[in-house]
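Format is chain and fold; as here:
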Amino acid sequence: MPSDPAADGVRSRATLSEVASLADVSVSTVSKVLNGRSGVSSETRQRIEELLQDHQYNRRAAKQQPAPLLEVLCYEIDSPFASDLLASIDQVARRRRIGMVLTGATERHLPDPSWVDDVLRRRPVGIILVACVLPAKDQQRLRSRNIPLVMLDPAGNPGPDVPSIGSADWNGGYLATRHLIELGHRRIGIITGPHDMLASTARLSGYRAALDSAGIVSDPELIRPGEFHHADGLAEGRALLSLHDRPSAIFASSDLYALGVYEAARSLGLTIPGDLSVVGYDDLRIAQWAGPALTTIHVPLRAMAEQAVELVTRLADEPDLAFTRIEIDTSLVVRSSTAPPSTARRVGGAKVSNG
């Protein structure tokens, strides 16, 4: 019988030959699994992966050096937000003479099933997940090969053992709403993001806190959900502006939402900022080109990219480095889409004087 490295209640890191012995396979078969190569049945692969995880095998002592590549898994790579962020990651990586391999995620923010196997074959310096999640079993496979992982603008709540980088979304939501309150608005709508994304829940919390600090009761009718798409901004903007007592301002918690709200307002004969003030979020390049130029919350995408590449390369050299969530400050950029509320408002399609 092969000896068990975890015998006597003391778990130590197994060697390659010990894992092969426990799995009753050859060392070359374990090596294939470690390197993501084909030629191993799914049942055998799963058994070996479980043993590698249970006995904490890692390749810290291996002499093979990782390729000078950075893997980036990104949700909705064709969106303006992803485009701006990926361009920043690429610039930072190239400055460090590191190439970038970009892969798109599924609609559920997950990689395709074969993605981890492909990553193991390439053996990159590290991985950056942009608005994505990765199952725990896949995280462990990467960890056992000493391939570090960093989440950037994470979807969901990353576990305590996964480093993440994001913007100060609560503060951004607070700044956007407070700006509208200081202009004199009291009926302020918001279009939120997915309920399971840390960024969207934090922005909504900041919105509510700003209302509360001004003594304004949050109206559930003015809170509309979305998926950070332009179409949501159009549909939910139209819904808000069609209310009998419509808002005089909308905090659209993404710039794409804001552009949809612009379209909804114009279709209803409302002007910006004359009849409606709008604040966006992200400060994408398109924000300053909108008509009128969009007041928005600036998210420092380049600084986030710098932090992500810096952290993932440090983790490659220092696997035991202590880490935590890093939040980059946000700031308000005031342009032409916000103004004090009009002295008249529309109710049921007719203009009614406030005086």
Remarks:
- The radius of gyration is 25 Å.
